[in-house]
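Researcher: Quick sanity check before group meeting.
Model: Go ahead. Protein one:
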Amino acid sequence: MGAISHRGVAERSDRSLAPRTAVRALGVIAALIAFALLPSSADALTSQVLQASASNTPGFADSHMNDGSPSWTWGAATGLGGLTVRSQKSGANYRMLLKWDISLIPLDASVKRGDLDLYMNTSNTATRSWQVLRLTNSWVEGTSTGAACTTTGVTWNSRDCVAANNWTTAGGDYTATGAVTITGSGTNCTNKWISTCFGVWNIPTIVNAWLTGSGNYGVLIKDTVEGNAQGYAYWFSSKENSAANSPKLTVYYLRKAQNLTATAGNGKVILNWAMPGGTPDYKGTMIVGGSDLTSVTNFSPVDGTTYGSGYVCGGTLAACGVLLDDTTSCAGGTCTATLTTTLVTNGTAYYYKAFTRDTDTTYCGGGTGACYSGASAIVSAKPMTTVSPDPKWGYSTINGASFAPPGLDAGSPGMVVFGDSTSLHFVNASGTSAGTWVVAPFTATGSISKRPPVIPSAYTTTGVNVTYATSQDAASPANGYLDAVNTSTGARLAAWAGQGTFSGNGLLGGAAVWLQAAGNLTFQPGSVTTDVVFAGTRNTGAGSTTNNKVYAVNGNTGAVVWTFSPGNMDIISSTPYVDYSHSAIWVTSRSAGGTGQPSVWKLNAATGALFNGGVNSQDKWSLGDIDASPTPSGNGQYIYVGTVSGTLYAIPIGGGTAIACTPPSCGGSTGAGVIQGLPWPLWNGNPETIIFSRNSTVHSVSFNTSTAAFTTTNWTVTLSGTPTVSAPIDDGTGNNIYVGASDGKVHKLAVSSGLEQGTAVTVTASGTTVGDPAFDFTNTLIYVGAGDGHVYAVTPW
């Protein structure tokens, strides 16, 4: 199969992958006009009712406490309804505590109303005022129906029975911020929801605080004037008394615009974003932007207010203004807007953020304007001429840097696929839509830090254009995730439902794929004949220097085929190499900081066993810590690996002693640090030239595969200003290589001498790191990610 080669992380397959036509249904507009999608049929905020479905529903709690019995607890009480608020002298004031599970409310929700309603079992005819306050400390409901606390449960004195857990202030720890008071009479309110007689507490400030990190400890309800001589008591239904009549919180909200991105071009900026989808039926978007970052950051629309395109929020419209304030529905859709030369100038940085909007202001204060969500994160873009040495385009995400080389799907115009801290992006490589979405980004569970392999449908058993992305969350120990995503739709493959999660096993390294189109192989157990995906773990916490694994996963279904877990495998940060000629998988790992355990592993691809039964220098090599991915020689006779200490090794593919190239005697007398990314052989005959990078140096050596020896140190180069450098890549001519650097530039070096060729292309500010480049042979472009959160397309020079 000539269309796809079998190289490691930075596949040479990118120059010749089968074409694929990407279809987009995004309306592109001149000047400042937005998208046009089908009109809506309804217009209302999303609502979510939070109420216990049974007495033991997880995440829900209710109880009361009183100062006359400060050590008593009533977490499971049902008498007279089970919950009370009371104002009475002689130490008999009752306060109620309520808590709801808010996991059904999205974390990006902007809560406009939060209606708290109670079912009154026994009322009092007196007019009283009750206050809801946000609790600032945790408490335990307990299981007592009313008795002195002996084991667990909230009391007037304690959050959970014992003195060690006492409230900071007896009677509960709370804040007045967001507090709400309602006043009414219990007349004719018995056996009714208080919304029909008193009204409800609207507590959006409290609910928003729960969603933004203040801690969901629930609320406390108390009489505003306690210690009354008459003794006013009101009893309400608890979840133990009646789940159907238990405390109810109805939350109305808008979600933020999703995945706002900005693509800089010549005299224009193109913005892409997605609406949250489903209900509510959002009435369009407000885009605010300009060159004044402070003004853009500080602006927030007021609910019920009409702004309109052209509203100035910072001196001039170009500095800070409402650039788009449409009333077109885009619910569930992807959206685009083009800002042209009337609003942007080449060479100037601009900043943008988005607000979803709805014209139903019933739940956000009324008025004739709109109801607005919270702001998306800010993206930036700097328009440029797109003529070399300027980049052709720059794509900015809200989700941080991406230093791995993008995956490439050739076609017309082709697609660039890359990950960041939360998402996988699918971007047009060239043409009139260059640098903009093919489809909306895919949201991953963890952070994506390695290049995803992109496989056209003609070469995969899935039958669709597919990419496989590894990610890892920040839990301790970390959890790993492997996702199979259709690059034509941006959706995870339906057949992978319930698969691809590796609890307690992080996945930081990249995925490699055995393609049946490249070589038929039956995997065991289960006689699997689909494509199979390989990924190694990067575990955290205790035992992580020995408890790592390699997984083989069915590429069609996500089911684990086999697991290699030798008990002495350190963390894996690299991408495996698929050796079709020998039906083997090569994996590199760390080795606990020494050479006492293996760091290069050769596995039987079909079974996951060590290839030769576990023989040193035949299927495992102890070479010291390795983070770089393995890569083959041009004739397929050797595997090259680079260690953390800077030594380059050539390993006979059939087994044997690893041949070392150890600086300074080999690889140059200067340089320090880890070998970056992977060694880059040029596949230029025998002896073969190998380029590799360390911290601030780029090296060229030659290896003779016939004599099994490193024969020549060709050159070592330190770039001007001594920036750190990325892994290298060549342009396919055998004459030039490219590296990114921490001076914000992409550099071109001559293969023959290491001398810089022409003027390095500046893609971002000096001091900002530029990551590993990828070369697109179809469109003749170089792609690099940078520490400023952008991916840039650069024309070779």
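Researcher: Fine. The other one?
Model: Protein two, sequence then structure:
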Amino acid sequence: MRALFNNSSNLLTKQSYNTSSSASTADIIPWGRAILTIYLVTSITYRFAFLPLYTVSFQYQGFVILDLVATIFFSYETIKLAKLTRSLLSPSTILPDTFEHPKEDANISQSLRSYEDETEPQRRTMWSYGRVLFYFISTIPLEYLSVFFLSGDWTNYFLLNRLLRMLYLPKYLAGLSTVLARKGYTNIGVRRTWLLFFWMALAGHLCGCGFYYIARYQAENGVGLTWPEVAGVYSVELSTSIDGQSQVQVSMMSTPAGAYINSLYWAYITMITTGFGDIVPLHIAETIWCTISMFIGVLITALTIANLQRTIGQFDAARLNFQRKMELIKKFLHYRGLSKDVQDRVTSFYDYQWRTLKGADEEQFLTELPRTLQQQVTNFMCRDIIAALPLLRKANKALLNALVECSEMNIFSPNEDIVKAGEKIRGAILVSRGEVEVMRGGITERKMKRLDRFAQDSLFVDKTSIYNVRSKGFSEVILIPRESFQQVIKHQCDTEYIAQLKETACSVSNATKKANKMFGSGEDMTPTDGLKKYFHPNCFFRKLWDCLVLFGLIFYTFSIPLSFMHLLDSTNFSDTPILLCLGYAVDVFFWVDAILEWNYFFYVEQSGLVVFDRDHIRQNYCQQNNLPREILCLVPFDIATCFFGGRYCHFARLVKLIRLPNIAHHMESIEIMLAELKIDIDLSLYRVIKLNIVMITVCHWVGCLWYMMASLSILLGKDENWRQADESNELFDISHTDFGGFTAYLRSIYWAIVGMSTVGYGDIVPTNIIEMTFATVVILFGGLVLPAVVGGLAAYISNFHQTAKMFQ
């Protein structure tokens, strides 16, 4: 009972879920709570610091409307909480059987008195109604009192009661995390990372607003020079009134949004420990606030980096464990001197298991489940297939469940014999997945796929097979043993029903024999003549081609930002001839790749079968790729834009970025090629190389965008930009046009690495609002991600030669 009253807000959440008409409606409420609370916290502090003259008027209609929406939403929440609290505190709710069962009531009262004193109910009541009162105080729109009853600039102070809602923000975010988990976002490391990013962003906002408010308050009181005055946000003028008293006049030189960007920029470079040094505290009050902000920022930064490092270290952990397992298996096979054919079959079997289960241990999973759940899962996997037997189509659930328990699930590799000619048949064979061939004398008489069966009459008759039953690819086959089947039907069926089952099995078996037709040769019919031998997915050419596709995507990753950084300049695409020629060569390569993938390249089904039919190849291409997206990537928009001006070619090349998500899929081609060339590379070293490539890519993109920020500043008529400031630096003799413009690119990458690695030399800093906005975003995300990536590299390096370490 105590937990029930102490968590009335949780009960309100559950009540809203129960009374909602649909799951989507229930999910909207947590989003509404979180978003509106974040809006109130951020907007009120922004107005308090940067809009001291804010009033409820048409001038600030955006804030007024959003405040009204928040008031209506939380008023509804408060009313529901009050109703719920009242219902919980009513005697009928606490003791619903008081009048119907007086003896039980006496027992309940006696047990309650054993652990509650007489004042406990009053205390719970006061606590519950106190929560309702707190909801009411944090919801009431007091700002309207300043409009009707007070004069002067008091509106911001009457908004402060809304900040009490911030105390519930952690609980609202936890509810939002639950909603995301229910929708399938189950990676707790990723969710925790985004949550820490949010707290860092919110803390930076609050510290930035406080830093500006303190400086402005000091300036209005004539304390002395403040950081916004040095940064050009406002100017301070001293004047003398008629009575001889000095007055301080603060005149804004920037918009409130510009002042806010300056404050936010300072907050993030301070809290994430980058510290360019272009904005620093200038008196004791600012110093105290800066010290508090640094302490908060270092705490959140440490937590974020630690969580990111852990997330990166555990990224794709299942695949890493599988690769380590395969490394040990290959060493064992090599040590035992097994033939190459056996080694290939063993490795292909484990590859098949990885493709289907992604590292999950199916047997362990089923073992840990209770008996009833095991039965349900097994029924789902096997029952439909067993029920498809003609002799069992009218069987009851009890009989089917018993047969499911005694059946055996087996996985067979390509070209592996399930039953050999002259071998006794143990029972009925049912195909669950893949393709199975029934052969006689080297000729395929029948091909079986899912729900097909073989030798069901062997459930009643001891038979010797005259056929070779062979798995064509990877196949999952269910076997119903004859002995187990006889025991089950003996206990659950009468003699007459057993006779009917036997008659049905024999008649179906005879009909199957008569209906067997020649479906083709028992040999592998995959074409290997002429150029078609290069289309096989396991040939060396296909593996090499996949590597070339990966290199083409990497080229796009690095070349397109180089084109995009000149988008706002007056240069044409023809001014970079090497990039132009290489770009069109890669475009032609992807045209050829699309034609081959659409018409010619064979593919392997999940069961291991090689498909070479063109119609099936095209269907698979449409299923594996987004056809409109592929067409959009192949259309040469950059050539068409030459008629409107060469500078627009840079923008048209951005369409190629749609291909970049395919990089992760093609990364496996490098591993396959290394295995084909018999190059043994440590798995942790391979992951270190991939992580370094990711880090270099991020720095390359940020550097190119940083270069473009200067071009954007020039285009928008800003008086200064970072490139001009860097070239005019008297300490350096730098010209960004040296080496064909490579110096400008190098300085851009230099700033990106210095900023995101939190070194923060301060020789290159943003000089206007545009650059400062971009730098703020880069420092917030890059300044937290890059150190975490470095930590992930350290974790991977520590795993080098893990097998040898485990042996030692």
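Researcher: One line on it for the slide.
Model: The longest strand covers residues 234-240.
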